[in-house]
């Protein structure tokens, strides 16, 4: 039975494009996967912890340095990691903020990147441990980053491809709405429907 994890990270609610399009994507996925299950997390409602000294000690420090606080920090990460491990498909609603991802989403990334759990180093270098998953990133931005004037400022898509690939999620698709397309979608969601349909290969 396929399982989907849906994450939202826009600070906007009713007006958010990434929330609307992500929800549409998940609804379409449910239609094509009637047996499937869905988990949802809004990282703006419950912002993941920032990496703390307790977390670093809990993950990297020797066992005799561990305390109830370091264990709690690692347990909080482990909860988020377990949600990702359980998923076959991740739908990540991630607007562009200041040419990168929202801070709450970055906090989530920092919690799920854990040595020995989601990535490891061996004689061949780094190895992602979350293989076999697909990620769909629903992204919205004000500027059109296909415009060469803006392309160099895009620290969103390259970063997400890089960090997701680092933990083993190499099948990453972007549903990206920006610039003029974004305005059309805000007006009627027509383009978004088409992008979602093409991505799911339905309709
Ligand atoms: C705090 C903030 C920072 C933003 N920074 C950028 C940016 O660097 N580049 C850009 O093209 N758009 C930027 N935008 C525009 C958003 O990416 C755009 O409004 C998008 O639709 C937000 O996603 P949402 O509709 O899901 O809330 C920013 C918006 C906000 C609120």
Automatic annotation (TrEMBL):
Record: residues binding FMN: 10, 96-99
SUPFAM superfamilies for the chain: Flavoproteins
Signal peptide as annotated in the record: none
Cofactors, names only: FMN
Comment on bound cofactor: Binds 1 FMN per subunit.
EC class: oxidoreductase
Keyword field: Flavoprotein, FMN, NAD, Oxidoreductase
Known EC number: 1.6.5.-, 1.7.1.17
Domain of life, per lineage: Bacteria
Pfam families from the UniProt entry: Flavodoxin_2
Residues in Flavodoxin-like fold domain copies: 3-193
Gene3D superfamilies: 3.40.50.360
Reaction(s) catalysed (UniProt annotation): 2 a quinone + NADH + H(+) = 2 a 1,4-benzosemiquinone + NAD(+); N,N-dimethyl-1,4-phenylenediamine + anthranilate + 2 NAD(+) = 2-(4-dimethylaminophenyl)diazenylbenzoate + 2 NADH + 2 H(+)
Function in brief: Also exhibits azoreductase activity. Catalyzes the reductive cleavage of the azo bond in aromatic azo compounds to the corresponding amines.
Family: Belongs to the azoreductase type 1 family.
Assembly behavior: Homodimer.
The protein's name in its UniProt record: FMN dependent NADH:quinone oxidoreductase
Organism name: Streptomyces siamensis
Gene name of this polypeptide: azoR
């Amino acid at each position: 039975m396929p399982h989907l994890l849906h994450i939202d990270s826009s600070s906007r609610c009713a007006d958010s494009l990434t929330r609307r399009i992500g929800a549409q994507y998940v609804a379409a996925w449910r239609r094509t996967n009637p047996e499937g299950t869905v988990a949802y997390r809004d990282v703006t409602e419950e912002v993941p912890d920032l990496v703390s000294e307790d977390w670093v000690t809990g993950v990297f420090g020797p066992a005799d340095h561990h305390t109830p606080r370091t264990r709690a920090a690692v347990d909080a990460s482990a909860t988020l990691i377990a949600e990702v491990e359980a998923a076959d498909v991740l739908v990540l609603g991630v607007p562009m903020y200041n040419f990168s991802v929202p801070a709450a989403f970055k906090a989530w990334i920092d919690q799920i990147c854990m040595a020995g759990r989601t990535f490891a180093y061996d004689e061949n270098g780094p190895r992602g441990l979350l293989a076999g998953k697909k990620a769909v990133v629903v992204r919205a931005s004000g500027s059109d980053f296909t415009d060469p004037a803006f392309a160099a400022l895009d620290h969103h898509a390259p970063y997400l491809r890089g960090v997701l690939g680092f933990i083993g999620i190499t099948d990453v698709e972007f549903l990206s709405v920006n610039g003029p397309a974004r305005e059309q979608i805000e007006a009627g969601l027509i383009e978004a429907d088409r992008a979602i349909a093409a991505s799911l290969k339905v309709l």
